[in-house]
Structures are given as C-alpha cells and as structure tokens.
Amino acid sequence: MTVHSFHLAEVARLTGTRTLLSPPTPAAVPGLDHLECLSLMRLGAPVVSPDRLQLRRLAVFAQWQDDAALDRFLVRDPLGRSLAAGWHVRMEYLRRWSSITAFPGLPVRAGAWDQDEPVVAVTLARMRMPEIPRFLHHGRPVERLVRDHPGVSLAVAGFRPPRTISTFSIWHSTRQMVEMVHGRSSVSDPSRHAAAMRERERRDFHHEFATFRFRPLSEHGSWEGRTGLVPGSRAV
Fold this sequence. Notes:
Helix content: 25-40%
Mean pLDDT: 90
Oligomer: single chain
C-alpha cells in the first residue's frame, strides 16, 4: 500500500547542500515514487533572515510504494540514515486540492475521516519567480496564523531554491483545520488565510500548487526534544 512520509532532521551542512542540489530519485532508491527535499524555514520569520534558509535542517516529503521501501531507505541510504536520526510521520493519503506533476495519480478523495480526528496538511508549490514578493507579503500573515493557532501541534515550512515552497502542519482535529481555512477560528484576525486565497485567485503566485490532507499513521523519533507531536500518539 502506498504510504507518504514527512521527515525533519538536523544534518551536516554539506549533506543539506548536496541533498538540495541533487535529491534522491526513484532510479536510485527502490520503492520510492517521489521525494521532495527542502531547507527548513521558521514560519513567520523576516524575509531576509538566516531562518529562511537553514541548510542544516532538512524537511523531506516523500511517497513510497510501501512501508518496506521506506524502512530500507532509512537503514541503507546515507541520507536515509541521517533522516532516521531525526523525526518522521507516516501517513495515509485522504484528499487533495489542485494537483502537482510530481505526485500524479492521487485521486481527489480517498476514504473518509472523522471531523474530530488528528490530521496532517501538506502544501507544495512551484513559484512564479516574479510573484515571490507578492507571495511573501500575503503569505507571512498566514504563516503566523498557522504557527500560533491553538489547534496546531506542529507547523513548519520548507524551501528549495529557486522556486519550491512547502508547508507542513499537524492539527488536533480536521474541524479546527477547516475552521482556520475558512476564517472561522476563534483567534485574532481569523480571515488571514481566506484573504490570501482570494489574492491567489485574483493573480496566481504559482506555476503549480497543491494541498494534501493525510491521516497520521505512526510517529517515529523526536524533533527538538519533542515526541508525541501527533495528538494521541506515542513515538516509535
């Protein structure tokens, strides 16, 4: 069964740079469908800041043919061993909005879910380079909204130069995530996400953009000394 994973890890600077320049491919990693490597960013950080490109902190989002393929990668591959020393979550695909070439074949919707169960959201975008200043202007308030939302257990973003951006967030419930998207959360200025989406519809920031929803299946390792980042789970 296809499984998705999201990883966070501290790596050597050379490893981070090499991985961003030449990420693993299905030809080199048996059982891998696709893998995105990104430099971790701190949500809401100033535009010009070391926190916007952290070469020693990697975020990796991948699709695998099965759990065994991911297990082999974490044991046998040099990058995989670096990621195994960090944290990752394995996920079941549920739904997408829009699509991106790197992940073909995913249905619009797969299965059902409970509004009160934990959920993981991943966005992946290929930016239009001239639109990046506009994107940052409208996107940073949304970054802070998600980062500080009481329904979020973990929220990070990643960047792979020159134009790939991703966000990853774990929510206590699907209901809280949906309320945030539609501007109905009980927080200060809850309409920030909805306003940014209207601006994107007015003039798109991206060549490609997709949002994916997942059910967390299992959590492994720790991140910044934290475990149990998926509500109700225990790290393996």
